[in-house]
Amino acid sequence: MKAVVITTPGGPEVLQLHEVEDPELKDNEVLIKVEATALNRADILQRKGMYPPPPGSSPYLGLDCSGTIEAIGKQVSRWQVGDKVCAILSGGGYAEKVAVPAGQVLPAPIGASLQDAASFPEVSCTVWSMVFMMSRLSAGETFLVHGGSSGIGTFAIQIAKYWGAKVFVTAGSKEKLAFCKNLGADVCINYKTEDFVARVKEETGGKGVNVILDIIGAEYFRRNLDSLSFDGRIFVSGTAMGGAITEIDLRVVLSKRLTIQAVSSFGDDMNVNYLNSSEHGSELICLCYVVLYNSVCKFVN
Ligand SMILES: NC(=O)c1ccc[n+]([C@@H]2O[C@H](COP(=O)([O-])OP(=O)(O)OC[C@H]3O[C@@H](n4cnc5c(N)ncnc54)[C@H](OP(=O)(O)O)[C@@H]3O)[C@@H](O)[C@H]2O)c1
Q: Which of 36, 42, 114, 246 has the most C-beta neighbours closer than 10 Å?
């Protein structure tokens, strides 16, 4: 098969199409003939050599894919050859074929193209698990997502609005903020020209927001804690953009009874484990149907 290979760490020019071995199919896996894959920030970091793939996973880029099942492993009963699917991967989407554990596969949403479907698994697993399962965002609460126009942000805005939350976003330009507003964001903050802590306080009558999804890391951590309400929850999903080391006043955490959670993004260990557990895998499949069949979220470019 052909795959996009990282010849050496660097810019997009280091990517080359090479002839490589077909993946070997394990008993618990399906083999997908790839129609489309996605571009996540993690792919860019991997290309630059900053995110080595987890041991045992494909050396090729690509954390999502869509396509048609070409073969099934001996233990797989949930899928059949010919099924149109999308899947979350530990890598390997930038290839003509990928072998993936059956539990990481979702039905391709009816009404969406396979190209669009390839952008769904990674962001939906990430946002659903971090914001709703672990940070327990509820209807009527306030929610701040940094990088509102990112892949994560665009999904988070739409699903949080559907859930009944008031959504705050940060982004770096007027155009991006207008785009977020169009997706349903209630409070749009330009992080380059405004202090998001002051704006959050102003918009919440001094209380702060209930939940923050942070993609920045150290640079925002202290200010995020200042932006949370009593009993607030923050989920840190990465440090690549804002660094890993910072100092905080723990009294802020204690006095506001804050919950801090985080997970390393790479290899999607969390997402993969999450989807592979039958309870959460089914939940994600239901979400897939709710979101797509009821037009709760639209695919955006
Ligand atoms: N832990 C996990 O399981 C997991 C899974 C998926 C993704 N992630 C992480 O989530 C992050 C987003 O991923 P993605 O693929 O959605 O990224 P993306 O589409 O590349 O977007 C990155 C965003 O960051 C925003 N940004 C940069 N500096 C900012 C700042 N100082 N304040 C606010 N926003 C800022 C950019 O907004 P502007 O262009 O407006 O500046 C842009 O929208 C990445 O760090 C990724 O590693 C983690």
A: 42
